[in-house]
């Protein structure tokens, strides 16, 4: 799938941008602070969630006007052409419109798949489990659009249970009722995650790639994750007294962590070099994209922020070859055009500059 | 026009607070009432006064009526052993509109939510438990919303009643006159799981 048209209105540093695009990768270059990442953040809205910065809608408004903003695009994929729009007015939450009608995030997830790798993820393997869990769930969501609803249901029931724990409520029926809800969504959540890892493993095994394979495993911060709904329900019931003491729920999929091993070297991802850690993430994004291309008949949109600069010329050329072989519309950013020389005519180039606080985008695909 | 303490303005302001109405529609409604003073405004005011004097919740089931025990609870014919548990009076009225259910109701007045400070005692759940024996209930039908809170509440009640009375819940699936193409995955899954042999 790819964006054939993208317009931004008062979105972050961009006052007005209108781009006509084809399916080729999009290479964006320009000095630091001109608004390259803002451009791909707008593209990241074309998937459920809050975009690649996880920002609130009001923070996406152009300053100093803060009038609200609008992003629209035309996406072409296996299900045909769809017009998708996002609007936020006066600091209100972002509204999604698909083909002119208000739509849900879940409906959006069915139409558009977007995967990204951004500099903030450089420390993913060594920082807290929360970031890895988010990465795991974004990957899972790309395969299973219902994953987001399961996560919301689980979270809701868990927050209710945590409140009972904090207030030391002793009503066993109430706990059982909430634990039944948590077990149902939690077991499905876990099954989705396992299935997503399996797809990634297969996509890595089947491909010839310049990027190192990662062996992934789900681990719990303590004990083992109960597999079935019944097991999870029993585990929650057994944990109740301990949980009351802790004031929160200690078992379940919210305590899952993603453990990665650099397969060829047998070294945990967290202990690999900085460059290797990035290569491992890139490898996973590409595997995710290949698996999705097989699933839905079209590769997802890729957003690779400042990735080119961290690769040597050989790896860079290999990345470009893989993206082109996949046929993905990958949005790449970098400070200068020389970073994208190996792409040549296989990509469309955009230059971003800044004039008195306003980003300007020019290049092959930009319309006046 | 917008004089303070003007009774017309006061009426508009009150009407605008009604669900489904805004300032503009409230103004239209008030103007219409004034024009139809004898036919509508006076009887409406009288009807409102009468309801204000007499409306009260049924002590037994929580329905809204004009006596301590509502008509449904008073009717011998409706004491057929079936008891339908609903979240809200609006749900009870929706069930009644269909005219199919001939048993009695129990209105909880909300759903369990620890985060909102709503516990079993706020929900008339103890009254429900005591009605089972007192009214010889043979089956409890849980007609609660298919949300996390609704299902938690249904589970909570079922957990306490499972050995005492037959329990059932409303079916989930394809709405009558609905098209499969427009249903979400969860509804299709529920409909498939609850499929019927023809």
From TrEMBL, chain A:
PROSITE patterns: RECF_2 (PS00618). It is found in: Cytoplasm. ATP binds at residues 30-37. SMART domains: AAA (SM00382). It comes from Pseudoponticoccus marisrubri. This is DNA replication and repair protein RecF. One of its GO terms (molecular function) is single-stranded DNA binding. Keywords: ATP-binding, Cytoplasm, DNA damage, DNA repair, DNA replication, DNA-binding, Nucleotide-binding, SOS response. Residues 22-357 form the AAA+ ATPase domain. Belongs to the RecF family. Pfam families: SMC_N (PF02463). GO terms for cellular component: cytoplasm. GO terms for biological process: DNA replication; DNA synthesis involved in DNA repair; double-strand break repair; SOS response. It comes from the Bacteria. The RecF protein is involved in DNA metabolism; it is required for DNA replication and normal SOS inducibility. RecF binds preferentially to single-stranded, linear DNA. It also seems to bind ATP.
TrEMBL record, chain B:
Gene3D superfamilies: 3.40.1360.10, RecR Domain 1. SMART domains: TOPRIM (SM00493). Keywords: DNA damage, DNA recombination, DNA repair, Metal-binding, Zinc, Zinc-finger. A zinc finger (C4-type) spans 58-73. GO terms for molecular function: DNA binding; zinc ion binding. One of its GO terms (biological process) is DNA recombination. Residues 81-175 form the Toprim domain. Belongs to the RecR family. May play a role in DNA repair. It seems to be involved in an RecBC-independent recombinational process of DNA repair. It may act with RecF and RecO. This is Recombination protein RecR. It comes from Pseudoponticoccus marisrubri. The gene is recR.
């Amino acid at each position: 799938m790819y964006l054939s048209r993208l317009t931004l209105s008062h979105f972050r540093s961009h006052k007005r941008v209108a781009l006509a695009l084809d399916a080729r990768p999009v290479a964006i270059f320009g000095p630091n602070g001109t608004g390259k990442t803002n451009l791909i953040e707008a593209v990241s809205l074309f998937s459920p969630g809050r975009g690649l910065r996880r920002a609130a809608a009001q923070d996406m408004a152009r300053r100093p006007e803060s009038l609200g903003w609008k992003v629209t695009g035309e996406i072409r994929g296996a299900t045909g052409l769809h017009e998708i729009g996002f609007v936020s007015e006066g600091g209100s939450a972002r509204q999604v419109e698909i083909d002119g009608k208000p739509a849900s995030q879940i409906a959006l997830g069915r139409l558009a798949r977007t995967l990204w790798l951004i500099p903030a993820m450089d420390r993913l393997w060594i920082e807290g489990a929360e970031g890895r869990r988010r990465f795991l769930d974004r990957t899972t969501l790309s395969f299973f659009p219902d994953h987001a609803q399961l996560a919301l249901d689980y979270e809701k029931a868990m927050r209710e249970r945590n409140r009972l724990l904090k207030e030391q409520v002793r009503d066993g029926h109430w706990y059982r009722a909430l634990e039944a809800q948590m077990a149902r969504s939690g077991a499905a959540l876990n099954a989705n995650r396992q299935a997503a890892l399996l797809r990634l493993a297969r996509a890595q095994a089947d491909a010839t790639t310049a990027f190192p394979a990662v062996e992934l495993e789900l681990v719990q911060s303590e004990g083992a994750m109960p597999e079935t709904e019944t097991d999870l329900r029993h585990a929650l019931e057994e944990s109740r007294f301990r949980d009351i003491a802790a004031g929160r729920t200690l078992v379940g999929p919210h305590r899952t962590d993603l453990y990665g091993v650099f397969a060829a070297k047998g070294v945990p991802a967290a202990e690999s070099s900085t460059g290797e850690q990035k290569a491992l993430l890139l490898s996973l994004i590409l595997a995710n994209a290949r698996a999705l291309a097989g699933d839905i008949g079209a590769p997802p949109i890729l957003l690779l922020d400042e990735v080119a600069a961290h690769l040597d010329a050989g790896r860079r050329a290999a990345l470009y070859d893989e993206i082109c072989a996949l046929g993905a519309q990958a949005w790449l950013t970098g400070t200068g055009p020389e970073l994208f020389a190996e792409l040549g005519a296989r990509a469309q180039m955009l230059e971003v500059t800044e004039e008195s606080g306003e980003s300007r985008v020019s290049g092959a695909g930009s319309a006046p | 026009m917008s004089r303070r303490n003007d009774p017309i303005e006061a009426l508009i302001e009150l009407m605008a607070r009604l669900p489904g109405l805004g300032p503009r529609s409230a103004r239209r409604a008030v103007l219409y009432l004034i024009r139809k003073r004898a036919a509508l405004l006076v009887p409406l005011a009288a009807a409102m006064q009468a309801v204000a004097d007499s409306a009260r919740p049924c002590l037994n089931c929580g329905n809204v009526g004009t006596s301590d025990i509502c008509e449904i609870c008073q009717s011998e014919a409706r004491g057929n052993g079936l008891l339908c548990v609903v979240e809200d009076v609006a749900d009870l009225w929706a069930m009644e509109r269909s005219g199919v259910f001939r048993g009695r109701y129990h209105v909880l007045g909300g759903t369990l939510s620890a985060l909102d400070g709503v516990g079993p005692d706020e929900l008339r759940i103890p009254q429900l438990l005591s009605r089972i024996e007192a009214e010889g209930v043979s089956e409890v039908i849980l007609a609660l919303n298919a949300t996390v809170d609704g299902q938690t509440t249904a589970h909570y009640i079922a957990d306490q009643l499972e050995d005492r009375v037959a329990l059932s819940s409303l079916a989930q699936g394809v709405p009558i006159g609905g098209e499969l193409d427009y249903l979400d995955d969860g509804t299709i899954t529920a409909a498939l799981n609850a499929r019927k042999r023809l």
